Amino acid sequence: MFTFSDLFQWDRFITPTIIKTFYWLVIALICLFGISGIFSGLAAMAISPFAGFLVVLYSIASVVVGIVFSRIVAEFILIVFRINEHLGAIRDQGGMR
Questions:
Q1: Transmembrane residues, as ranges (predicted)?
Q2: N or C of the chain: less Cβ packing under 10 Å?
Q3: Residue ranges, the chain, pLDDT below 70
């Protein structure tokens, strides 16, 4: 975990510790937008049943794709930071010789 003083120092990164929080916030937003789309599709079924059904299907599919895509982005960010740590360890090993 990071402390408040870490925000003003550049000794370590804070992104890897807070990326999980942002990931869950994005998941919550995706689910809220998906639920909103489903309700919009159900309301549109009163006017045009086929169009409303398509909106409901599109909303469900976009929730699934959004969750998978957000997980991929979060893992990519964590991988970049892990690569940085490994490169630092390799650099430190090379300086000892």
A1: 21-47, 53-81
A2: C
A3: 1-4, 6-7, 10-11, 95-97
Q: At what angle do helices 49-96 and 15-44 cross, to 10 degrees?
A: 170
Half-sphere exposure of 32 (CA within 13 A, CB side): 6
Q: What is the rounded CA–CA span in Å between residue 62 and residue 37?
A: 10
Q: How far apart are CA 61 and CA 46, in angstroms?
A: 22
Q: How far is CA 27 from the centre of its chain?
A: 7
The pLDDT value recorded for residue 85 is 86
Is-contact 13 81, C-beta < 8 A? yes
Token pair 């942002």: residue: 22
Q: C-alpha 84: how far from its chain's center? A: 20
Alpha carbon distance 66, 30 (integer Å): 7
| Separation of first and last alpha carbons in the chain | 33
